[in-house]
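Hi there,

I know you've been waiting on this one. I reran it after we fixed the sequence typo, so this is the corrected version. Both the input and the resulting structure follow.
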Amino acid sequence: MIRFRFAPAKARAAVQWMLHEARPDPLDLHTILKACYFADKEHLNRWGRPIFGARYRAMRYGPVPVEIYEMLKGEPYWLAELAAERYPWSLNGYRVKGENEPPDLDALSETDFEELERGFDRARRMTFDQRTAATHGPDWQKAQLGWMRYEDMIEPDNPRRAEILETLEEISFRMVL
């Protein structure tokens, strides 16, 4: 199974940027989590690596990048990884509100940010039901409400599929995202 080391600095930057873009309105968890999934999957297929390296759980309403979800809920473990005292957002029910602190996008590469913009735009234009339907593809279905596999996120018709799989099977966990 292909696994990556999660990149909490990228996740923080991405979430903070999305919240900054949505100001003054909060965002719902579903929009943020599905934007991350869309961006990660597309980056994986185009560039041969995900952005965040999160573990994805196939949940009833679609894939959930578990570590990003933990961060959104205020999990202190990731604060230690980020050498931070707090997250620049707050969760109230299922809505996340950002603080006025501008996002620091230095952790994201140019291609990371491009895919994040596309993923966020896509997620924001959809209703909850549309996002759910759009994320219940073969990769989600194969997981059967368990852990999703990056191998299944690479599109079957991707002309670089075999090359991406071969490379990631060898070096994925040692990669610095």
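Quick highlight: The chain has a mean pLDDT of 96.

Best,
R. S.
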